[in-house]
Design brief:
161 residues; five-stranded mixed sheet
Length: 161
């Protein structure tokens, strides 16, 4: 378990899985960057790294989908208009391990994509239509590039979100 405060936003990264050794510093760094970019100055963020069974249980209980997924975001207190956010993100390392090869990058990069995706949902992005999904994808690419990650070509037709 590790903690870091950014101004008055507490960021906690919990590693509750055994499938992938994860350096939590890039996770914290990108979360801090996104919070700063969207003027979130107070609150608490938990990023929890989990396995397939755990994320499938949450997906079933909260979204009524009975399968493992990559990331689930849970806004708890959303007062972004005041610069305050309390939220949790569950990120599945097993899905990252399974999917990384499909895009030609390593599981840690796939995992960072999931963290960025979850964070973007928390700060107001959506991906329910192809048009806004494209906007969200462009923002994901921007943040991955800032981390020094070469972004593979993505085809929206291959996604079934």
């Amino acid at each position: 378990m590790s903690y870091r405060s950014r101004k008055s936003v507490l960021i906690e990264v919990l590693d509750e899985q055994e499938y992938l050794v994860v350096d939590t510093e890039p996770i914290r760094s990108i979360c801090e960057k996104i919070l700063n970019d969207f003027r979130i100055k107070s609150g608490k963020l938990g990023v929890i790294l989990v396995d397939n069974d755990t994320i499938q249980q949450y997906n079933r209980d909260f979204l009524h989908h009975d399968y493992p997924t990559d990331v689930i975001s849970f806004p708890i207190v959303d007062r972004r208009y005041e610069g305050h956010l309390e939220a949790e993100i569950l990120v599945c390392t097993q899905v990252a391990l399974d999917m990384a090869g499909e895009f030609g990058w390593v599981p840690e990069e796939e995992l960072l994509l999931y963290v960025i995706h979850g964070m973007l949902h928390l700060v107001g992005f959506d991906d329910t239509t192809p048009e806004i999904q494209t906007i969200m994808q462009q923002k994901e690419r921007e943040y991955l590039t800032q981390l020094g990650i070469t972004v593979p070509k993505w085809n929206l037709d291959d996604w079934d979100e």
